[in-house]
Amino acid sequence: MKTQKPFNHFKGIIHGISSDGRITRGQFEEMKLWCQAHKGLCQESPFKEFFEEIKSILDGGTMTSEEIDEMKTILKKYESQLSISETVESRIQMLQGICYGILADEQINKYEIYVLKKWLEENNSMLSLSPFKEMHAILTVVMDDGQVDIKEEKELKKRFLEILKLEV
After folding, report:
1. Among 5, 2, 3, 1, residue whose Cα is nearest residue 90
2. DSSP-H helix ranges across 21-149
3. 125 to each of 4, 69, 86, 113, how far by Cα in Å?
4. CA pair distance 11, 8, nearest whole angstrom
5. In angstroms, rounded to a whole number, what is the distance separating the alpha carbons of residues 98 and 31?
6. What is the pLDDT of residues 84-139, one digit of tens each?
7. Do 128 and 109 form a contact (C-beta atoms < 8 A)?
8. Please, what is the average pLDDT of the chain?
9. 46 preceded by cis ω (within 30°)?
10. Over residues 35-61, mean pLDDT
11. In 33, 95, 144, 159, which residue has its Cα 20 to 30 A from 118's Cα atom?
């Protein structure tokens, strides 16, 4: 299913950008870039309807927390038609989206770390695999003191880029 990967990426992006409760211009632009990149998949249902609902929110020009909640509702509505969420591939695709969402504002904060760590633990079948195991170890260290120092941020960005390069 050629729409599963973009759907899971978008689901992850929403999860990543909403983790700290604020939407920056960079994060908003990341969602718009996703729309531009996947416009070509809009000939077929149900992706066409999903895309139109998402795009109508983004065309408003700003993003409120209510609109993020609305997008999460739209994602739930189409999930069974557009994704098989129990596969390793779909989990990696969602994790890639989370990484995109967190990186979109060029800052990594403790709320994003908490959400990412929690997501990895909820999908613990991935924790025995590289690079997820190493990322979880870094997230645990960061959460111990509740601060993301420069060295940790650099290491996390390196891990995020590794995950973004995975072919799934």
Report:
1. 5
2. 25-38, 47-58, 65-82, 88-103, 110-122, 132-145
3. 20, 28, 11, 19
4. 5
5. 12
6. 878 889 999 999 999 999 998 888 998 999 999 999 999 988 898 888 899 999 99
7. no
8. 91
9. yes
10. 92
11. 33
Long-range contacts of 160-164 (CB under 8 A, 24+ apart): 160/99, 160/102, 160/103, 162/131, 163/92, 163/95, 163/96, 163/99, 163/131, 163/132, 163/135, 164/96, 164/99, 164/100
**Can you give the length of the chain in residues?**
168
| The amino acid at 113 | I
- Contact criterion met (CB below 8 Å) for 94 and 11: yes
List the structure tokens of 68: 């993020």
pTM, entire model: 0.90
- How far, in Å, CA of 134 to CA of 137, rounded? 5
The tokens describing 108, both together, are 């990594």
120 close to 12: Cβ distance less than 8 angstroms: no
